[in-house]
Amino acid sequence: MFFIPYLSYMIKAVIIDDIKDARDNIRLDIETYCSDVEIIGEAEGVVTGAKAIRELKPEVVFLDIQMQDGTGFDLLDIVGDINFKVIFTTASDEYAIKAFKFSAIDYLLKPIDPDELVAAIEKIKNTKVLPKENLNLLSESIKDHKSMTRLALNTLEKILIVEIKDIVRCESSVNYTTFYFADKSRLMVTKTLKEYDDMLSPLGFIRVHQSHLINSSLVKEFIKSDGGYLMMKDGSSVPVSTRKRQAVVEALNTL
Predict the structure, then answer these.
(1) Final residue of a domain: which of 143, 176, 204?
(2) In this structure, is residue 1 part of a structural domain?
(3) Using an 8 Å Cβ cutoff, are 96 and 63 in contact?
């Protein structure tokens, strides 16, 4: 009887970070917790990173956002054809983190949590190379974090980038959220309403009900009868919960 040995597939990866300790920590974590990942190279900046990618042809790149000689986006522009997957790493920067969320791109926060590292590796096994539109949105958002004007929405079939001003309201459906737009179109996405509440509330959106988040700039009127509800400019009506009623009135009075 012959036995065929089990051959495990190794994911080839490159680490690009301008801080040696950061590279060493990522390498150690990968060697400790990710037995199916092989580090085939490292680089400390944009120029050396682009060279390493071209020569080594990795399947995954652990890429720092800010480096001494430029940004991770500068590196991706130099490389041009992105035929590898990217796991971004970033320091604790609230604006960068917000930009990642608006762009629907995952990231690892330094110092990296081993559980999150393992989860990121598992996720990339089942995902495609990041669309250029999402990378462009992330780059724009990080450069100008004060004016988030677009949002990337993940559906089961695609990723759509929309103008935030065109979102009329969002409605919860268990672990999904349906977006309603000014042109009467709608889109169901694979995230909870709470996640979008956290992102959009600073931009003029109001959580008026456990299941409803609305764009305050597109409210037509507040009807106080029948328990209270909002008429939106697209003609839809949205209930206001008793608990949220006073806060909604106060918010609308400040517009």
Answers:
(1) 143
(2) no
(3) no
